[in-house]
Design brief:
Elements: H1 13-23, E1 30-34, H2 35-41, H3 43-52, E2 57-62, H4 97-103, E3 108-113, H5 117-129, E4 134-139, H6 156-162, E5 163-166, E6 173-174, E7 180-185, E8 188-193, H7 215-221, E9 231-238, H8 244-258, H9 264-269
Parallel strand pairs: 1-2, 2-4, 3-4, 5-9
Antiparallel strand pairs: 3-9, 6-7, 7-8
Length: about 280
Amino acid sequence: MATYGMNTIHGRAAAIATGAKVANPNLTVWQVSGDGDGLAIGGNHFIHANRRNIDLNMILLNNRIYGLTKGQYSPTSPRGFVSKSSPYGTVEDPFRPAELCFGARGHFFARCVATDAKGTVEVLKAAYQHKGASVTEVLQNCVIFNDHCHDVVYNNEGRKKNAIYVKHGEKLVFGENNEFGLVQQGFGLKVVEIGKDGYTIDDVLVHDAHCEDNTLQLKLALMGNNDGFPIALGVIRDVDAPTYNDSVYAQLEEVSGQKKYHNFTELLETNDIWEVK
């Protein structure tokens, strides 16, 4: 690839990426972090990169474990998870990346599975085309310390049964033959079988990734935690908003246009000058 790459210190990927993008807004910046790096020691940088809407493409590799440091539980490990640092099971509830992203006023969130090449390419292309902070959660197994953690969607058959591919403007249907759909029930969602119990395709909701109100998008993103709902894959939220880096440079242009000086020499000449001989 005709690109440049670098490693940062642990937990500081978003901070370094922010500096690179603001210093050179012409760069396309991709930041790759794990769930531990991105949401624990780097959690503060993660939420503020989203809040500021810096034009970064953040890829969050979620294997629900600290793989690099040999198998400690991470901020996304489920309650009761047994690991080297929690031999009797964790007593904490995990972060859900989408919830954290949305709570930080994030404008783009997508999800894919590491073994699904087509789905991964689609969401990464959408992240690239989005102007502003994008978060793509990649579900992946850690084959050493947490293998099989995403097995329900890790192969094609599993995804047909246990996942729903959401696409803007299309009906929220899923199943091996698209026989199931999502409908609204009160303030929540309900899984129905199309053509049964009086439900037709007209009752099924249409996905709106561009809706500024993230209520339905968040409900979609949080499905699939052994609750009878499928796991949502694809672009869940994609909303336009002013970016931090564009706003910074616009402010600089506005302020510099009002100044009498535009470089260091002119700055010196705005005050009294003495010539020393």
